[in-house]
Design goal:
The structure is a single chain. The chain is 37% helix and 20% strand. By secondary structure, it is of the alpha+beta class. It has a single domain, classed as Alpha-Beta Plaits. The chain starts with a helix and ends in a 14-residue tail after the last helix. The mean pLDDT is 94.
């Protein structure tokens, strides 16, 4: 998680990074154990993040450790 958070120092446009383990007692997590929320200053910065070399390298390093990932983008 420390390496994930470090992306905020490497990639322009990340204004906030939050994370934590699932602690819900409802049993509705469908096997997901952790959540990460990254806030970008704009959709353009989010789009740049997706193809940024540091992000892609992090994803490649993390993939062997993950069974599944759920990504949800929203805007206001």
């Amino acid at each position: 998680m420390r390496d994930f958070a470090r992306l905020a120092d490497l990639i322009e446009g990340i204004v906030d990074f939050e994370h934590g383990p699932n602690i819900s007692p409802e049993g509705l997590s469908k096997g997901y154990t952790h959540a990460v929320m990254i806030t970008f200053s704009s959709q353009a910065f989010r789009d740049a993040y997706l193809v940024h070399a540091a992000h892609l390298a992090f994803v490649d390093r993390l993939k062997p450790w993950l069974d599944e990932v759920l990504v949800f983008d929203y805007g206001i």
